[in-house]
Amino acid sequence: MITLKQQEIELLKIISKFKDKEDDEGRTNAINSGVTEELSNIFETRDLSSITHPYIYSFFCITFSYPWELRNQIYIKKNPYPGLFRLFDHQENEVIRLAIRSIASILLCGLLDIIDSEPNLHFESIQSFNGINKLFSLFKETKDKQTKDVSSICIGRLFHVKQIPDKNITQEVISHLKSIINDTDDWTKISSIKAIQYLALNQVNKIEIEKEGFKIPQ
Fold this sequence. Notes:
13 helices; ARM-like; 218 residues
């Protein structure tokens, strides 16, 4: 029986192997061998206090810098959203931050090969366990800038062509996305612009976006 300490040592090896590195073959092998599937099970079932930083960071390192079509294999193997959303209740801000960044990464896979009139393919999956309201709550309640930025981008990706149902959330999310389109962080800047474009595919969202003469970046 592998101990938690031994498990953490193995996870640190995964982080070392993939952090800031391009290795599509290695990531594919990790997914096919069940690493992301097992981590998703841990996120869903294990006591949150025992899910330390290496667990979510190793998951994130596998998902990030990985082509969309290959990254989608994580979702196909096992839907990771229930476990990742559960981590919003974790006591450590860095764990929450990495969870929402992982969600942002996987959400891109739901935009694979769809046209402008189609919703994100992962929308219903997230809606099925009240994930949308959990995402709204995280956006509203967090005091961490990166978590707020990424959660607003997630909402934009998730509501591709769909109207955000809550008017207050619509206003807050769109206002926040507008405020970060010139962010000093390149990923935040580019991703927020794309999120605004996704939301603008819905006419109600578009009207809110274009208030006060705002021009949607192209």
